[in-house]
Every structure is written in structure tokens, then in C-alpha cells.
User: Fold this.
Amino acid sequence: MHRAAPKDDFDESALSVTEPKTQAAGVEAVTVALERAVEEMGVVRTARTLARVNQRHGFDCPGCAWPEPTGTRRPAEFCENGAKAVAEEATLRTVTPEFFAAHSIEELNEKSGYWLGQQGRLTHPMVLRPGDTHYSPIEWDAAYALIADHLRGLSSPHEAVFYTSGRTANETAFLYQLLVRSFGTNNLPDCSNMCHESSGAALTSSIGIGKGSVTIDDFKRADLIIVAGQNPGTNHPRMLSALGEAKQHGAKVIAVNPLPETGLLNFKDPQTVKGFTGGISIADDFLQIRLGGDMALFQGLGKLLFEAEDRAPGTVVDRAFVDAHTAGFAEYEKQMRAVDLGVVEQATGLTRADLDRTAALLAESKAVIICWAMGLTQQVHGVATIEEATNLLLLRGMIGKPGAGVCPVRGHSNVQGDRTMGIWEKMPEPFLAALDSRFGISSPREHGWDTVDSIRAMRDGRGRVFFGMGGNFVSATPDTEVTEAALRNCDLTVQVSTKLNRSHVVHGRTALILPTLGRTDEDLQAGARQQVSVEDSMSMVHLSTGRLKPVSAHLRSEVAIVCELAQALFGPGHSVPWAEFQRDYDRIRDAIANVVPGCADYNAKVRQRNGFQLPHPPRDSREFRTTTGKANFGVNDLRWLPVPEGRLILQTLRSHDQYNTTIYGLDDRYRGIHNGRRVVLVHPDDIAALGFAEDDLVDLISEWTDGVERRVEAFRVVGYSTPRGNAAAYYPETNPLVPLDHVAERSNTPVSKAVTIRLERHVHRR
Ligand SMILES: Nc1nc2c(c(=O)[nH]1)N[C@H]1C(S)=C(S)[C@@H](COP(=O)(O)OP(=O)(O)OC[C@H]3O[C@@H](n4cnc5c(=O)[nH]c(N)nc54)[C@H](O)[C@@H]3O)O[C@H]1N2
Ligand SMILES: Nc1nc2c(c(=O)[nH]1)N[C@H]1C(S)=C(S)[C@@H](COP(=O)(O)OP(=O)(O)OC[C@H]3O[C@@H](n4cnc5c(=O)[nH]c(N)nc54)[C@H](O)[C@@H]3O)O[C@H]1N2
Ligand SMILES: [Mo]
Assistant:
């Protein structure tokens, strides 16, 4: 069967820079995607696999959480980056016990994440015992016994940490949290802690539920869509189709971003014939905002909306909605009227004309959607920023009405579902009570550790066993040096994974790799094909069925791993029927129906044509289950990010050729970066003002109040369109710069989009 060999580890000196692209997607995207897929899986598997992405009887794309259309699905309901995600998982390359015998940990430690990921799918459970230089094979039962021994040997269940990444399906997530709570802890950190936690915190406080209030069909009814702090051309490409369609229905789109992201400004839909001829411009307006300036923007717009109301009373503020459904309006109005627009201009880097234009659009629009992602959430004042965005919608009565609402665009394909299923270190009491009564367990009530607190605990020796259900904890988390030491400080680290990554190489005294099936793989239990379910960014839940033959007979499904581990840990006679759950996933769904709110009749409902939508009280009936029983105007003092003299504020972001810590390739095509990743994008005037020239090699040093020097070396300086004082570089290479303690207020999310740095000329050291 045809498949290309993995590429050698790469050399940054081959890096080249060209002008950024002016248009996203189109024919080139399709070509790139297919080439990548054929390289990994060969022609036949490519054709069979890509035809099933996001189809009703197929599997859910493991790429992003953007929903599928509710009506007719196009023959290819995926995008370039979805195809890359599928190819990455469905690859025929394998990492076998022979591979581990040939490569020591020391050697693997020197390899890039790109190299590690390219080696292929893990095929066999592997163990590394204290003093070992190489991983060696272990049988599944022995692996479970080893984990169970370690867990039982802890002085408290709270010394164990159970991480989840957002690809885990609902059935696994539900059983996994059940195992963890049966064991006796709420230490359930997840990738969401680093992702949309700020959205959850803000929305729960404002509207009583931490999820978005729009559906995919609302995009056709909106007349104004604001996309802030998000790069959909790369990270949610199918969203561009929805935005394109919205525009055909007359909507205006405003992009709020420090960078002129290609997809947002211009887009060719590869799915339509038109895509092959001409494109459309997505954004009607582009607000090139300074990093961290969004809170000021939303407050400035709030002030201007009140002024517009003064000029034409009764036309801007939706009095009926405000009176019937909200609390805190008077205080909000008072604060908005006091906003200083001069400060807003300074904080945002925008002009008064920009603000006036945007406010006018907001004031006249009948249906407004605000979308956002990491640009807003990974800021110190991310929660407050999202509250301010929500305030604007509340003021205009834009929640719980067709074509309007809040739209946090989730990352991982099932990160929202994992939360619904109980993956959260502070699940509310009614959920725990339902779990206890259904299963006869007593879930602990004290809150567990989130991601940042888990790192602190492992660093300090309070966390001793780390269990990762997917993901790449070491590379995804902040303060890499601290996190690596924290993991190494554990007695045991266990990674349930599809592919090799750095979290296998940076390990506890004993380490296990448990290879698992991915979304595309066929999952047979007791001879029958099993299905799993997932929830998208808009609360739609549906089934996903993998059909590919697994690359190894030793792979186990995530569900099987949880059930078998539970039996090893709890022994026979446990009150949870683990073996039955493993044999037939319908039984898990029955239990989900009993415990999880909104999931009654789950088995039947996930089998409907488009699955089903979970309830969302504000969306469905303008009901707000907050502390006041109404939607709350969040009142916050303005926060923004002045740039210290001689410094830059750095955002860490994704290239077009990666999925979080998985590096697909070395080209950020849209931004004109080729064959390398160690670049720092800086405004040309800042490059000169700081005494550098384009193409110089620099070290980036982050400055934080603890005085610790955090440095990453040898980054190429690239002149780029970004506000003065702001810079951008790729994650995860820059994670060593993000201080563990630099977290968002109220969500504890690492501040990955605002790291104060200075540049130093790179000196080659040996
Ligand atoms: N192909 C692909 N798809 C993905 C992923 C991937 O890695 N690759 N990751 C998935 C995951 S887990 C997630 S969470 C999402 C992430 O999706 P995004 O949030 O789009 O991801 P980032 O690359 O972090 O981009 C952040 C965007 O916000 C802008 N930004 C940064 N700071 C600010 C700010 O202060 N204000 C404003 N207004 N804008 C700002 C940046 O310029 C950039 O355009 O994508 C998901 N989908
Ligand atoms: N500096 C900085 N740091 C960030 C961010 C940032 O913008 N800047 N973004 C943050 C965000 S938004 C997120 S969501 C996190 C992501 O954090 P994670 O979710 O932990 O990281 P990923 O890179 O998505 O995980 C990839 C690994 O998951 C495993 N995997 C893939 N599919 C499956 C599967 O089906 N099952 C199992 N068991 N394993 C699988 C593979 O082994 C692969 O190596 O990173 C965060 N970190
Ligand atoms: Mo994410």
C-alpha cells in the first residue's frame, strides 16, 4: 500500500517568508488536503474516509466543533484542515514496540513534536519502569493492575489527577468522570480550562448557562455578525461557509482582530462551483484592535449606544427586554456613560470613526450575533470582556431571538460535550446527586483541581499520579519548564493516546502509554459495531461511527480502557456495571439519560436524522437561571494592556498547519510563512524602534512579576501587519514564556494571548 515515509526532523534555517495570502481556501486548499491525506493513508483509504466525514452515517470530524448544516449536507462536508485532522489519525504509519526498542527516551527527547507526531499510530501498550531507558511492551491487564496499584497506594484519592482532552466522546467522558468520582476525587482538569473556560464563567454569570445561544440556522437570519478574537480561516474553516451564506442573506460581518487574518477578509468556498471561480469578501469591516483591547471596545460601544438612544429615544435600548429579563441595567448605564472614549481609542488602537461606524451598525441591526474564540478568552480580563460583549446584546434584546445571540466558537470537536457529561472539577450539586443516586456511589463534594492547579500540585508533590485521557498535557500547558518538572515529579504518568507526543517522553517515574482507537476507527465490542456521540459548539448532539480497520489488533477503545481499568481498580461487585457498559454502549447512553440534564431518551434522540439539540433556557424561552433569576449586566472596571517601554505584548497562536500541539506541516500558507515555525511577527516600525531588522535571529524573553527568566531561542523576526507594540508567535514553541501564575481572573485560564516580552539578539551558545 502506498504511503510516504515520515520526514526527517526539520531545520529552521530553511524557513522562508512571502507576502501573506489575500484569499483563503479555494482550489489550493483542496489540493493540499488531498495530498496530505494520500501521503498518510494511500488513495483507497483516503477516498473511503473523507467521504464519511460529517455525514449522517459517518463519523464526526475530529477537527473543530463547528456544527454540521441541518438541511442538505454537501458531498464533502469537511475542510482542508478537517482532512488533515482525519489523515493524521487515519495514517497507516505505525509506532510499534520495535520503534520503542530502537529509540531511547533520551533520543526521543531531542526530537521535535512534529517528528514525534509523524511517526504514526501507537500500536501496543508500553511501559517505562524506574531506571528504564526505553519503553517496553506490557499486556493490557498488567497495565491496568499497575495503575490500580498506584492509585490504591495513594494516601488520598486527591493525589491523583485525571486530565481530559476534548476529543473524548460523550460515552467515554461520562464513564471516565464516573470512575474518577467513584474513586473519590473531582480532580478532573481538561483542555477547556485553557480554552473556553472564560466563556463559561462569563456566560454562566450573565445568562445562567455557559454555552452559546445560537444555532447554525441563526446565521441565515442575522443582519450583523461580529467575529472577535478568532481565526476561522484556519481553525474553523466551515464557519466561513456559514458566514458566506449569512452574507448572501444580507448580513454584515465585522472582524475584530490584531491580525488581518486571510480567511476572514476574503474567502473562496471550495465546496461550491463558485469557489473555483471567484471568492467573496467575508468581512465588511476590519477593526485591527490592539491585543487585550476588546473590553475597551465593547465598553466604548456601550457608551455610544446610550448616546444613540439619547438622540432617538426608544430605538436602541430594548426596554421591554431589559425590564422583563435583566438585572443591573441602571448600574451598567451609569458606568457606560462614564466611559472615556479617549481611553478606549488608546486601549484599542482604533479611531473614533471606527467606533462610531460600529456603534451605528449595532444600533440599527435587528439581529446580532457575536462570535469569539481564544483572542478573548486567553486574556487576564477575558471573563469581563465576554461579559461586556454580552451586555451589548442584552441592551439590544439580542438573546433568545432568531438570528441573534452569543456564539463562543469551541475548539476541540467534543470539548462542549465532555463538560455536559461531567468532566469538570466543580460539577454542580444536582449532577453529583443524580450520579450518586443512579450508581450508589458517593461523589466527593469538594472542588477538584483545574489544569493550572494540577500543575501546581504535581510540582509541589501533592499530585502524584497523572492520567491523561487524550491530549498532550506537557506541550499544551503553560510554563513548559515548570510543567515538565511537575510531570517528572509524579510517581506514575499514564497517557491514553492515538499518536506519539511529548507527553510520552516527559514522564513520571513509571510511565504507561495506552494506545486507543480514534474517531475514524471501527469499534467492535462483543462482535457488534459501537457508536459514540458528540456535542458541537451549538449544543447539537449526534452519533459518530468509525469504520476504518484499526492499524493494530492491540488497540482498545477509550470506553473499554475506562471499563477495564475500573474493574481492576474496584474489583468485582462494584455498584457500577462496568462490563455491561463496555459490551454495549447503548447501556451507557441509558445511564446518561438518567443522570445528565436534557438527555432523557438519549438513545432514541441521538439516532434522529440530525441528532438532537440540548436545552438552553435563554435561547429557548428567555429564561435565565442566574443568581438573580434574570440576565445580569456584568459591571466591570476597564482593563487593557499598555505596552511597557521597549517591550512587546506577545500572543501565542496557531499556524495553518497544526492542530494544537500536533504539527501537520511547516507552512502557515495564509500568513506567508514556509518551512519553519520559529518566527515572531512584529510591526515593521517596532522592529526598527527596537533596533532590529527583518530576518534577525532573536531570543524572546518574557517578563513577569516573579523575576524568573523565561526564554525561547532563535526566532526569526518577520515584519507583519499587527498593531504597534503587539507581536505574535506560534504555540506550543512559545509556551515556555507563559507564566503558570499569569491567569485570567475568575477562570484561571493561562494568559496565552498577552505575554510581555523583550527581544534580544540571539547568540549562538553551545
Ligand atoms: N486547524 C486547526 N483547527 C483548530 C485548532 C487547530 O490548532 N488547528 N484548534 C482548535 C481549538 S482547541 C481551538 S480552541 C480553536 C482556536 O481557534 P482560534 O481562537 O481562532 O485560535 P488561535 O490561533 O489561538 O487564534 C486566535 C485569534 O485571535 C486573535 N487575537 C489574539 N489576541 C486577541 C485579542 O486580544 N483581541 C482580539 N480581538 N483578537 C485577538 C489572533 O490574531 C487570532 O486570529 O480552534 C480549533 N480548531
Ligand atoms: N500558548 C498556548 N497554549 C495553549 C493554547 C494557545 O492558544 N496558546 N491553546 C490551548 C487550547 S485552546 C487547548 S484546547 C489546549 C489543547 O490541549 P490538548 O487537547 O491537551 O492538546 P492536543 O494537541 O489537542 O492533543 C493532541 C494529542 O491527543 C491525542 N489524541 C488525538 N486524538 C485522540 C483520541 O481520539 N483519543 C485519545 N485518547 N487521544 C487522542 C494524540 O496522541 C495527540 O498527540 O492547548 C492550550 N494551550
Ligand atoms: Mo481549545
Q: What stands out?
A: The chain has a mean pLDDT of 95. The chain has four domains: 20-89, 94-195+414-600, 197-409, 648-761.
